[in-house]
Amino acid sequence: MRAVSIETGVTKHAEGSCLVRVGDTHVLCTATIEDRVPPFIKGSGLGWVTAEYGMLPRSTTSRMRREASAGKQGGRTIEIQRLIGRSLRAGVDRVALGERQITIDCDVIQADGGTRCAAITGGWVALKLAVKKLMKAGDVVSDPLVSPVAAVSCGLYAGQPVLDLDYAEDSEAGVDGNFILRGDGQLIEVQMSAEGATFSRTQMDQLLTLAEKGVGELVALQEAAVA
């Protein structure tokens, strides 16, 4: 793993916030609580967790155009924010959350590979801090977060299994993947693809073992950050 740090309480107004740094990838994550839910679950008594994701113009080596100026989000952005939302929901008891929505905003300040994984890891911290406020106020009786959720990238770089790829490694990796797991070891999602090379079942297992190790380290940092 690259050096990882999680700084909490970095914004004044959000119900939960953190700045997660994974090497040179830095993501600001904030949580907003709203007493409403999407129309498709209104009246069900179930809560909802959703996410939005974006990259600042100079988070990369050259300036990116703001998606707002183009009038729409790109396909990559939509795919990543849906991934963040469904990953975080996998660790939530939506009955215990009650009929309210928590939105996690993930803004990439600086990118050097693994932005979606950092967003999921930091997003859970922001979510946990927001839930703690709900519990302190007595709005939620039992903790709806059943397990931490964290994510890490792994790949085959120069023929070797590598944990937590930076941009240079990711761009040259023959195989790369994103692994999202709960703190109890349950898998949420695995995204693996070959980039000009194939991979064996043995190599896939090696990468999963690496990911389990990395997520274990991330969960320990998450729990320390929200203690």
From TrEMBL:
The protein's role, per its UniProt record: Phosphorolytic 3'-5' exoribonuclease that plays an important role in tRNA 3'-end maturation. Removes nucleotide residues following the 3'-CCA terminus of tRNAs; can also add nucleotides to the ends of RNA molecules by using nucleoside diphosphates as substrates, but this may not be physiologically important. Probably plays a role in initiation of 16S rRNA degradation (leading to ribosome degradation) during starvation.
Top EC class, one word: transferase
Keywords (A to Z) from UniProt: Nucleotidyltransferase, RNA-binding, rRNA processing, Transferase, tRNA processing, tRNA-binding
Assembly mode: Homohexameric ring arranged as a trimer of dimers.
InterPro entries linked: ExoRNase_PH_dom1, ExoRNase_PH_dom2, ExoRNase_PH_dom2_sf, PNPase/RNase_PH_dom_sf, Ribosomal_Su5_D2-typ_SF, RNase_PH, RNase_PH_bac-type, RNase_PH_CS
Keyword Cell inner membrane: no
Keyword rRNA processing: yes
PROSITE patterns according to UniProt: RIBONUCLEASE_PH
Residues that coordinate or bind phosphate: R76, G114, T115, R116
Every Exoribonuclease phosphorolytic domain range: 1-130, 148-214
Organism: Roseivivax isoporae LMG 25204
Domain of life: Bacteria
EC number(s) on file: 2.7.7.56
NCBIfam families in alphabetical order: RNasePH
Biological processes per GO annotation: rRNA 3'-end processing; rRNA catabolic process; tRNA processing
Gene name for this UniProt entry: rph
Substrates-to-products reaction catalysed: tRNA(n+1) + phosphate = tRNA(n) + a ribonucleoside 5'-diphosphate
One term of GO molecular function: tRNA nucleotidyltransferase activity
UniProt record similarity statement: Belongs to the RNase PH family.
Protein name: Ribonuclease PH
